[in-house]
Amino acid sequence: xxxxxxxxxxxxxxxxxxxxxxxxxxxxxxxxxxxxxxxxxxxxxxxxxxxxxxxxxxxxxxxxxxxxxxxxxxxxxxxxxxxxxxxxxxxxxxxxxxxxxxxxxxxxxxxxxxxxxxxxxxxxxxxxxxxxxxxxxxxxxxxxxxxxxxxxxxxxxxxxxxxxxxxxxxxxxxxxxxxxxxxxxxxxxxxxxxxxxxxxxxxxxxxxxxxxxxxxxxxxxxxxxxxxxxxxxxxxxxxxxxxxxxxxxxxxxxxxxxxxxxxxxxxxxxxxxxxxxxxxxxxxxxxxxxxxxxxxxxxxxxxxxxxxxxxxxxxxxxxxxxxxxxxxxxxxxxxxxxxxxxxxxxxxxxxxxxxxxxxxxxxxxxxxxxxxxxxxxxxxxxxxxxxxxxxxxxxxxxxxxxxxx
Amino acid sequence: xxxxxxxxxxxxxxxxxxxxxxxxxxxxxxxxxxxxxxxxxxxxxxxxxxxxxxxxxxxxxxxxxxxxxxxxxxxxxxxxxxxxxxxxxxxxxxxxxxxxxxxxxxxxxxxxxxxxxxxxxxxxxxxxxxxxxxxxxxxxxxxxxxxxxxxxxxxxxxxxxxxxxxxxxxxxxxxxxxxxxxxxxxxxxxxxxxxxxxxxxxxxxxxxxxxxxxxxxxxxxxxxxxxxxxxxxxxxxxxxxxxxxxxxxxxxxxxxxxxxxxxxxxxxxxxxxxxxxxxxxxxxxxxxxxxxxxxxxxxxxxxxxxxxxxxxxxxxxxxxxxxxxxxxxxxxxxxxxxxxxxxxxxxxxxxxxxxxxxxxxxxxxxxxxxxxxxxxxxxxxxxxxxxxxxxxxxxxxxxxxxxxx
Lengths: 405, 405
What we know:
Two copies of one chain form a homodimer. Chain A has 405 residues and is α+β, with helices and mostly antiparallel strands. Chain A folds into two domains: 10-273, L-amino peptidase D-ALA esterase/amidase (4-Layer Sandwich), CATH 3.60.70.12; 281-402, ArgJ beta chain, C-terminal domain (Ubiquitin-like (UB roll)). The first copy, chain A, is 31% helix and 25% strand. In chain A, the strands form three sheets. A six-stranded mixed β-sheet of chain A has the order 14-13-12-15-11-16. In chain A, helix 1 packs across helix 2 (89-107), helix 2 (89-107) packs parallel to helix 3 (128-134) and helix 5 packs parallel to helix 6 (253-273). The interface between A and B is large, with 69 and 69 residues.
């Protein structure tokens, strides 16, 4: 079951003026399930995105990148669950393009003004005909409906919303995400869409999506597998009436950035809380490194270790596995005699070995909690990084052994 | 259960003249279990080793490196299971040194002439007093006894033996290894000891141990975790009467190297066959790369992926997970449209997508086997690499959630 993750409150997901949502049942993988989401964007919307660095990136990722690069205003996003359209070669790209073309024709725009997204099983042909046939049947939806329409093995829909003042105007930021397995983003998560009615220039929006991804979706791992379809899109409709934020130095950039970041972090953490088979939510913080990169490297070594993750599943304060992961993180000049390791507030290791004052019952108390912070002080610099993950349970194996059946 | 791995035949494990084995019950972790192994070496023996690159390397690894570096002839190895003496700081080093000192005194040699090895739980104080007390009670043993005395979560002891002609003399090569979890060696496996009665110079022996490790123990992964204690030692007693092999260009080097390599590969594969919770043994071969490093990188991305490993556990030909792992292996200029992916002899993916002639029943037939070869042709060079691993089952989680209890 998801760890401290509630069903989003529908009434607290603020609509974003300029962004219209609709869902349809296309029967991509299952009948009678809303599996297609369309986001229609008003003409003034700006869109920026970051995508998976997996070389086997999916057909929709290739098309979305190309359509964004065309520079034409994006007028719609079309998302399906049930099939990732990945590892499908040129045929897969044609199918994704056909879906974009059908929606573009209906909306009276060019095919490049539609971005496609897919999530689900890899290496199966996408039933594009069924999606195209379902598009005209789509029904108006809100953000919670939208979050539900993009789920795969997610147990909980993931959506959140903020309103902040930007240059004297109230601005809304609302986002949804999906993803529970094959989560170890390089550039973004499985699928994340955040929309705001703020007015933001294209370059500033592109910078914001990169900055935010690096602090949110790129800090979560469930199983270390980087998906073929990871995409994170930021949409700014410009209808809030604020003066255009056209650079990261412009007034209002910081306030909007922080609101978008908070939405993205909440969604990213929700992915770890709802990680496949998760019973615990772990925050891994590494401090005192030379730079952020080495801190992240150590944090990911811990967060990816199957031995660490099974020990957390068992609530077993098997701290040696944490030390082993730190040791093999790949920092060649790491002086292990200088580092400190904490479980929440409990100092468990220092001076290259167990803290003499450490008592197993203190470690056990922390390990019994559903939320645990692992904190490593490298004591060799000023940088830090945080990564979120979940434990590794029987159910992870069950879910992934059963996924296609 | 181990995959196609039999109990070694005691009568086919040839003794190595110059190497005397003995085991004792020290009660390191459990009472009434043979948990200490001593290898006594005749005066002319030469010893070379490779060790873990984990920065949190264990006290015995630090001591073994230092004792080898002292240049004094090694006269004994002492190995305990049940406790890794890792993450134990200066106190752990003192305990390991005390064990070496006790054995050295008995044998009338210097403390630097004894190498210590430990395997088992991390971050617990090693009960050195019990080991020292048990040393005088040790009983003569053969190689199968020795293999059993170093097991931790291994189900099967791992030992094998060869005899080959080297420069007109019959030479024996016999080895043992242990390891089932926390297996992703950087320089060696958990513990591997191979002894030969060949006469080999120190420099040639050092080169041989590195070459062989790179082709055997460094090609196996169970869970991607690199141990704090990985050690692989090669002992040459010089009693076979061959002319000293004093360089890799010397007559006999190639024959001996190949015999040692074959023993090491069999032991390394045995570790994957006996991987924690293993139900399948997988060989991952990557061909046609620019260099061996990138082939190994792709092979390890596949062999480490929890999604790939759970699909193999389920006998599910979920080939998309293989493509995803290839895609995120980190080869930035990889052209996925050029690669071919085979399951045994079945071409499953080509041209960036599924092979049009591929039938699910062919993939299913291969996936149902206990031994499966995944073969990737990158089609961009002449290099290749092979890695061995096992699948990821419920039992992996159970074993690692229970390990300390």
